[in-house]
Amino acid sequence: MQYNAPLRDLQFVMHEVLDSEAHYQQIPAYSHVEADIVDSYLETAGSFAQNELSPLNMSGDAEGCRFEDGQVFTPKGFKEAYKQYCELGFTALTSEEEFGGQNMPTSLNSAVSEIIGTANWSFAMYPGLSEGAIATLEHHGTEEQKNRYLPNLVSGEWSGVMCLTEPQCGSDLGLVRTKAEPQGDGSYKINGTKIWISAGEHDMTDNIIHIVLARLPDAPMGTKGLSLFIVPKFMVNNDGSLGERNAVSCGSIEHKMGIKASATCVMNYDGATGFLIGPENKGLNCMFTFMNVARIGTAIQGVTASEYAFQGALAFAKDRLAMRALGGAKFPDKPADPIIVHPAVRDMLLTTKAFAEGGRALIIYMSQFADIVAQQGDSNMDADTVKYADQMLSLLTPIGKAFLTETGFESSKHGVQVLGGSGFCVEYGMEQNIRDTTISCIYEGTTQIQSLDLLGRKVLGSQGKLLANFSKVIHKFCESHKDDDSMGQFVRPLAKLNKEWGELTSRIGMQATQDPENVGAAAVDYMYYSGYVTLAYLWARMAAVAQQHINNGSDDAFYKAKLKTAQFYFAKLLPRTKVHVARIDSGSEVLMDMDVEEFVF
Question: Is residue 466 a contact partner of residue 395, using CB atoms and an 8 Å limit?
Answer without folding.
Answer: yes
